[in-house]
């Protein structure tokens, strides 16, 4: 993987906003093969392998090292990284694609407002129903880490394949961990966010992979982008890149 491998979202509002951001930096992206194509070209960065992928694929590629750089959600990076934030580098939060990863319970649970309340409720629930509270989520690692940090152990995870916010209503789970922008969907489904239940305030971010094979060619292309992002740091852009690529 000699040339820079750079991935951006393949569709939707996130793709449009990312392309607009790059164009404003002076690196316009043109899609190859029309709207259904998954390859693209980017001007101004040299010979770059430009890919259009889903946000999930980009996060996985950065963590595994099959991509050098990409734009994806911080929530996905944190959740897909087995060892946490040491497996990727956030270069720049982009100010769009914002959503919070939260813990929500039924509004009818009047005495459950915090994670400590949830642990107490879980103990009582297990004693009464002879099973643990079920927590539906697509964010398995993030949930485990957060619940452990909050000393909550009376639960079991249920991987959500559909609309997570509907899980308590359908009986598939008792509690959810999901993303929300306004909270309106949660409220419509009779759910409330715990007072200390915001796991992560996520947004679209430009991230680098420390695990990728960084050739001189790939570094040179990346430096052009870093210099445009940090014009005042241009003389030391090489040091900046090395800082990003250094393992913790």
The CATH architecture of the largest domain is 3-Layer(aba) Sandwich
Task: Tell me the radius of gyration.
Answer: 21 Å
Fourth CATH level, the homologous superfamily of the largest domain: Periplasmic binding protein-like II
What is the element string, with H for helices and E for strands? EHEEEHEHEEHEHEHEHEEHH
Strand order of the largest sheet: 2-3-4-1-5-12-6
How much helix is in the residues? Answer: 25-40%
Number of helices: 9
Catalogue the unreliable spans: none
Residue share in β-strands: 25-35%
Strands, total number: 12
Largest sheet: 7 strands, mixed
- SS-based class: alpha/beta
Mean pLDDT: 91
Number of domains: 2
What is the general shape?
elongated
Any idea of the CATH topology of the largest domain? D-Maltodextrin-Binding Protein, domain 2
Distance between the termini: 24 Å
CATH class of the largest domain: Alpha Beta
């Amino acid at each position: 993987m000699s040339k820079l491998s750079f991935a951006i979202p393949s569709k939707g509002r996130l793709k449009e906003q990312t392309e607009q951001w790059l164009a404003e930096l002076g690196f316009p992206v043109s899609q190859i093969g029309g709207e259904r194509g998954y390859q693209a070209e980017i001007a101004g960065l040299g010979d770059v392998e430009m890919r259009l992928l889903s946000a999930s694929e980009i996060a996985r590629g950065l963590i595994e090292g099959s991509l050098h750089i990409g734009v994806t959600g911080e929530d996905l990076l944190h959740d897909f990284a087995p060892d946490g934030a040491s497996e990727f580098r956030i270069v720049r939060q982009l100010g769009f694609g914002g959503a919070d990863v939260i813990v929500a319970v039924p509004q009818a649970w009047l005495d459950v407002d915090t994670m400590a309340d949830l642990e107490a409720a879980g103990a009582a629930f297990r004693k009464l129903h002879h099973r643990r509270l079920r927590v539906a989520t697509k964010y398995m690692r993030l949930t485990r880490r957060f619940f452990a940090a909050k000393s909550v152990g009376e639960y079991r995870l249920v991987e959500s394949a559909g609309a997570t916010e509907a899980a308590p209503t359908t009986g598939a789970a008792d509690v959810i961990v999901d993303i929300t922008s306004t909270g309106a969907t949660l409220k419509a489904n009779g759910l409330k966010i715990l007072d200390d239940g915001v796991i992560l305030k996520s947004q679209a971010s430009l991230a680098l992979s420390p695990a990728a094979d960084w050739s001189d060619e790939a570094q040179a292309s990346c430096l052009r982008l870093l210099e445009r992002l940090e014009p005042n740091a241009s003389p030391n852009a090489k040091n900046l890149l090395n800082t990003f690529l250094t393992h913790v």
